[in-house]
Amino acid sequence: MSITRTGFSSQNVSISKIRSLPSSTSKPLVGKVFGVITTENTPSKELFEKAGGFKGIGTVFYRIYNTSKEIQETIDLTTPLSQAIPLNPQVQSIPLLGELIYLIDLPSPVSQAGKNKSSTAIQKYYTNINVWNNTQQNALPTSDKSSLGLTFSENPNIKVLLPFEGDYIIQGRQGSALRFSSTTKLYNDLNEWSDVGNDDSPITILSNGFAYNPNENFHVEKINKDLSSIYLTSAQLIPLQTDKTGILNNLTNPVSVSNYFNAQVIINSDRVVLNSKRDEVMIFAKSNIELNTKNIINLNADERVHLNSKEIFLGTVNNQLPTEPLVLGDKLNTLLENLLDSLYSFGISLSTVVGSPEGSPALDITSAAGSLLNDIDRINNNLEGILSQRNFTS
User: Fold this and answer.
1) At what angle do helices 363-381 and 329-351 cross, to 10 degrees?
2) Which residue(s) pair with 373 in the sheet?
């Protein structure tokens, strides 16, 4: 039975037979992008297959810039186009039409593991060139009517994120970013996370949908204005504004959101959804769990809602825990049944009493009343048993 090699084993056919890396004799070149493989039909079905199908995702089709400055950035299948693959496929930055790429010659798979290995076989690799130092686009189009792509739309409001010393920033083209930063107390007037903590206190910010200020030439994350954010802090104080201000809970008295400066994770957006496709959603807290809303809290379950605790309190009385115990349904039902049975027996006895000579004792009534009194005493002694020792309400 033959074994199909995949992954590293497909490359590691014969380590001893791999030749030395080929050296490039050509100088680095600058290319202009005319197409990028992103789907089966982008930029065209023919070029998708030429690039190797889905294995060629990220492959660009280009022309040398010096000879293509005046050529419109459209695919012309009748004119040969050169192609190159990303230098670093783990971090892809897909270029737009008209952008420039830096081309270098490096070893190709054919030169290393192919059956017809050639020590001179090389492959073109590319990385983007930041012509305008613009996070949205760096194209050199032939005219104002040139397109940057089939779907890409330029947003004039997009601005570069202001970096601070030592920052590592990954910024998207349309207003999203991942910032690895730290407290910068010297510039606490420029960002929202440097009022508290040391300059070596790390912070990670994932943000999407910046709230750009048209009067500024740069952007810094603002948790209350950006559309969606996740903050991973270590010692920072984040000025998050919530619907509930003042004391969150008089009974537990937690530190307010905007005053907490220990390590925390903050997720902020118009809507937050936690969905487990297969198993539980678990929330654990060393201290308390606070749920606050100005509207309604709904707990929905197809089978049951289970609240389990040593004590359960419903409502408050003057910001204090309620002291009124809830009633146990089964025990109350049993006592009421016993009381009704006794009253029923008493009524039966009264309905069958026969008149006697005037002044003589009504023995049947006396007996029935005595039995009722005994039942009432017994029921009264059991009244405390119907009150819950764990559940209280206001």
Assistant:
1) 170
2) none
Task: Enter the DSSP assignment of 55.
Answer: G
Q: Determine the Cα–Cα distance for residues 370 and 196; give it in Å rounded to an integer.
A: 78
Q: Which residues pair with 272 in a beta bridge?
A: none
Secondary structure element (H or E) that encloses residue 372, with its range:
helix 363-381
Q: Quick: pLDDT tens for 199-250.
A: 999 999 999 999 888 888 899 999 999 999 999 999 999 999 988 777 777 7
300-324 exposure pattern, b = at least 16 Cβ within 10 A, e = fewer: eeeeeeeeeeeeebeeeeeeeeeee
Which mean pLDDT values do the consecutive 10-residue runs of the chain (394 residues) have? 41 42 64 93 90 93 90 76 92 92 87 57 91 91 84 88 95 95 94 92 96 88 96 95 79 83 95 95 91 90 91 86 85 83 77 62 71 80 82 82
- Which pTM does this prediction carry? 0.80
CB-based burial label for 346 (10 Å; 0-12, 13-18, 19+): middle
CA 363 to each of CA 137, 225, 285, 366, 376: distance values in angstroms, whole numbers, following the listed order = 107, 87, 69, 5, 20
Contact 342, 375 (CB under 8 A): yes
Exposed, middle or buried, 134 (CB in 10 Å: 0-12/13-18/19+)?
middle
